[in-house]
Amino acid sequence: MEKINRILSDFAKVNEYDGVGNDYRLYLLSEDTKEDICELIKKDIKATSDDTIELIQLNEWQQDFLSCEFPDSEEYWFGTIPSGYDLKGLTPKEFIIEQLLNTFEQGIGAVYWVKLDIGAY
Q1: How far is Cα 89 from Cα 91, in angstroms, rounded to an integer?
Q2: pTM, entire model
Q3: pLDDT tens digits for range 26-82
Q4: By residue range, what is the domain housing residue 75?
Q5: Number of domains within the chain
Q6: Which end of the chain, N or C, is less surrounded by CB atoms within 10 Å?
Q7: Which residues, listed in sequence order, are joined to residue 113 by a DSSP beta bridge?
């Protein structure tokens, strides 16, 4: 995860513009598939009773990953490639997905988009 987060951080930095900061991170909350994902997220973000968490399973995760709510935003978030990266002909999104697949050698069973509404913000 450290390598993936370094890559995400590098992309975030070079794609910041005009007062817009980016922060991309991935977290492994558990390797136990029997744990309740919503409860893990609530605990991790210290959710309050005003917060609403919705899990949406991405059936075509490799297509939808990193662009769920804003499909055309990929260019803004990952359009500039950081210095020193050789994507070997892949798009930034494909490159990041490849890194994920290499990290989780046992395979990726399901990917969820966590939609969070912090009601009292």
Answers
A1: 7
A2: 0.74
A3: 777 777 777 788 888 888 878 888 888 888 888 888 888 777 566 677 777 788 899
A4: 2-118
A5: 1
A6: C
A7: 56
Angle at 20 between CA 17 and CA 21, to 5 degrees: 100
- Tens digit of each residue's pLDDT (9 = 90 or more) over 58-68: 888 888 877 75
The token duo for 29 is: 């909350």
Beta carbons within 10 angstroms of residue 43's beta carbon? 11
Q: Give the orientation angle of helix 2-14 with respect to helix 92-103, to 10 degrees.
A: 170
∠60-20-93 over CA atoms, to 5°?
A: 25
Element of type H or E holding 33: none
For residues 20-40, one letter each, b for 16 or more C-beta atoms within 10 angstroms of the residue's C-beta and e for the rest, the string is eebebeeeeeeeeeeeeeeee
Those residues whose C-beta lies under 8 Å from the C-beta of residue 114, and which sit 6 or more positions away, are 41, 53, 54, 55
Paired sense of beta strands 51-57 and 112-118, if any: antiparallel
3-state helix, strand, coil split of the chain in percent (to 5) is 40, 15, 50
